[in-house]
Amino acid sequence: MFCPLCNNVNTEVFQEVNSKLYYKCYNCDLIFLDKAHYLNQEEEKKRYNFHQNSLENQGYIDFLSQLINPLKEFLKPTFQGLDFGCGPNSVLAQLMNQYGFSCDFYDPYFFPKLVKNKTYNFITATECFEHFFEPKKEIELLISLLKPNSYLGIMTELLADESNFKNWYYIKDPSHVCFYSLKSFEFLCKKYGFKMLYTDKKRVVILIYQGV
Ligand SMILES: [Zn+2]
Question: Is 1 among the domain residues?
Answer without folding.
Answer: no
